[in-house]
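Students often ask why inverse folding is considered easier than folding. One informal answer: many sequences map to the same fold, so there is more than one right answer. In these notes we will look at a single instance of the problem. The structure comes first.
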C-alpha cells in the first residue's frame, strides 16, 4: 500500500471507538419512516446525520427534500480534480418499525453489545452504512487533508417505505448527484468475516386489501351462522394466493420472469447443499419445512423467483377480544419479484385474483402500494475490480459475488439517470443480523472491516477508472 493509504487506514483504525459511539447515538433515534407519528424522529435522524457528515469533513452538507418526501441528506467533497472520478456514497437513515417489542432481548432503540454484536434497530440496516461512509471520508481527510477522488453523499430518509418520491428527488437534484460510480452500503456480507458484493436484487410490489361486512361489530352468538365473518373471508382469499409449496399461485404472478441461465441455476457449494445450516442461522424452528418448489435450489428461491408474504393483518387483537363478528378485516401483501417482472402488472393480476374470490358479497377495498422492479448487473469491469480489491484488503478474504432477495429501490433509477453507471453494493449486515426482524444486530468486527474496505475503495476506484 502507498503511504497515504497506510495513513488513512491508521486514522480509520484509531477512530473505531468513535465510530461505534456515533452509530449508537444515531441508532437511539426511532426514525421509523412508515409511522407518521415518528415524523419528528425521522427529522431528528436527518439532523443528526447532517452533524455527523460535517464532523468528518464533508462540505455543503444539508437536508434536501421534495414535496411530501421524508428528509434526505446531501453533502460532497469535490476537490480531487476534474480528471478524477466522482463517487456517490449512498445509505439511508430511516429504519423499520421494531415489530413486537416484547420479543427483543433489549430495548430496540437502546443499542446493547452482546457477544461481539451490537443489538438495536438500524444498527445494521442501515445506520452502520451511514457511519461507515462518514468514517471512510474522515479517515482520508484527517490523515492527509484530501481524498483521492471526488465524493458526493446521499443519505435517504424513506428507503424503508419503498422510496416513493425518489424519481422526483433525482429530477430535482440531478446536478447535485451527478457521479461516475455509486457505492451503496445497504447490502450485506456472505457470512461473518466474508464480504459480499451484490449484483442482483429482487423487485418489490405491495398492496392492502380490506373486506367490509358490517357497519359495526355484532355479537357472534346473535348473528353467527347468518352474517359473514370478514376475517374468515380474508383468510380464504389469502390462502388462495399460494400453492402447497408456499409459492405464489395466482394467474400473472410469474408474468415476465426471466428464465435463469444454467450458470445462474448451478448449485452454490456450502449454501444450496446446507439447508440445515441456513435454517439454524435464521432461527428456523425444529421440524419446520422450507417452502418453495423443491426442484429449485435455495438461492433460486431467495434471489431469482417471486415470493409472497403477508406482512400485516388486522381484525381484532386476541388480547381484549370478545365474542363478536368484526365489521372489517385488512391485510397487507408484500411480494418480492424476480428479474424481468413488471411490478404494476403483477399488482393488477393480484387485484383480479382477489376481486374474483371475495366470498359472500363482502365489500372490497384494494389499494396498490409501493413498487420497484428487480435490478441486476454484470459484476465485471474496472469499478467491480476495484471493489473486489478493496473488500479483500478490508476483510482479508476474497469477496463473494452474490444476489440478494431484498429490494433497494434507489439503485436502478439512479444508475439509469446517469447512463447506467456502475453500482457497487456491499454493506454491514450478515445472515445473522436479522434485519427487519426483532433483535437486529451488527457484527462489530465486520463493521470495522467495512470501514477499512471503504477507505481502500476511495483510492482503488481512481486507480481503475478514468473519467
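Output (designed amino acids):
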Amino acid at each position: 500500500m502507498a503511504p497515504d493509504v497506510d495513513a488513512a487506514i491508521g486514522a480509520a483504525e484509531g477512530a473505531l471507538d468513535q465510530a461505534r459511539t456515533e452509530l449508537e447515538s444515531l441508532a437511539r433515534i426511532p426514525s421509523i419512516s412508515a409511522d407518521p407519528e415518528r415524523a419528528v424522529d425521522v427529522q431528528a435522524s436527518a439532523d443528526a446525520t447532517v452533524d455527523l457528515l460535517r464532523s468528518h469533513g464533508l462540505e455543503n452538507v444539508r437536508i434536501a427534500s421534495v414535496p411530501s418526501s421524508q428528509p434526505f441528506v446531501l453533502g460532497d467533497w469535490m476537490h480531487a480534480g476534474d480528471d478524477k472520478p466522482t463517487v456517490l456514497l449512498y445509505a439511508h437513515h430511516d429504519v423499520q418499525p421494531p415489530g413486537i417489542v416484547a420479543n427483543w432481548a433489549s430495548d430496540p432503540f437502546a443499542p446493547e453489545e452482546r457477544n461481539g454484536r451490537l443489538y438495536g434497530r438500524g444498527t445494521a440496516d442501515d445506520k452502520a452504512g451511514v457511519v461507515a461512509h462518514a468514517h471512510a471520508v474522515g479517515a482520508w481527510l484527517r490523515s492527509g487533508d484530501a481524498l483521492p477522488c471526488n465524493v458526493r453523499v446521499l443519505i435517504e430518509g424513506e428507503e424503508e417505505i419503498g422510496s416513493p418520491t425518489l424519481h422526483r428527488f433525482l429530477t430535482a437534484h440531478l446536478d447535485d448527484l451527478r457521479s461516475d460510480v455509486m457505492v451503496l452500503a445497504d447490502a450485506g456480507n456472505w457470512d461473518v468475516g466474508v464480504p459480499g458484493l451484490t449484483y442482483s436484487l429482487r423487485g418489490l410490489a405491495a398492496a392492502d386489501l380490506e373486506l367490509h361486512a358490517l357497519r359495526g361489530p355484532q355479537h357472534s352468538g346473535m348473528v353467527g351462522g347468518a352474517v359473514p365473518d370478514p376475517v374468515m373471508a380474508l383468510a380464504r382469499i389469502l390462502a388462495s394466493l399460494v400453492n402447497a409449496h408456499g409459492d405464489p399461485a395466482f394467474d400473472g404472478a410469474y408474468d415476465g420472469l426471466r428464465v435463469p441461465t444454467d450458470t445462474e441455476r448451478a448449485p452454490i457449494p456450502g449454501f444450496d447443499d446446507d439447508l440445515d445450516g441456513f435454517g439454524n442461522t435464521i432461527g428456523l424452528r425444529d421440524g419446520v419445512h422450507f417452502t418453495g418448489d423443491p426442484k429449485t435450489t435455495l438461492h433460486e428461491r431467495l434471489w431469482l423467483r417471486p415470493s409472497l408474504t403477508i406482512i400485516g393483518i388486522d381484525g381484532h387483537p386476541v388480547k381484549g377480544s370478545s365474542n363478536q363478528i368484526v365489521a372489517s378485516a385488512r391485510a397487507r401483501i408484500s411480494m418480492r419479484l424476480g428479474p424481468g417482472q413488471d411490478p404494476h402488472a403483477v399488482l393488477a393480476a393480484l387485484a383480479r385474483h382477489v376481486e374474483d374470490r371475495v366470498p359472500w358479497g363482502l365489500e372490497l377495498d384494494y389499494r396498490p402500494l409501493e413498487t420497484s422492479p428487480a435490478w441486476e448487473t454484470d459484476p465485471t469491469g474496472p469499478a467491480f475490480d476495484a471493489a473486489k480489491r478493496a473488500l479483500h484488503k478490508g476483510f482479508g478474504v476474497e469477496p463473494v459475488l452474490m444476489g440478494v432477495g431484498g429490494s433497494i429501490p434507489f439503485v436502478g433509477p439512479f444508475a439509469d439517470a446517469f447512463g447506467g453507471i456502475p453500482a457497487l453494493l456491499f454493506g454491514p449486515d450478515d445472515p445473522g443480523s436479522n434485519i427487519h426482524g426483532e433483535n437486529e444486530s451488527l457484527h462489530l468486527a465486520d463493521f470495522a472491516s467495512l470501514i477499512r474496505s471503504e477507505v481502500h475503495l476511495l483510492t482503488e476506484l481512481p486507480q481503475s477508472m478514468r473519467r
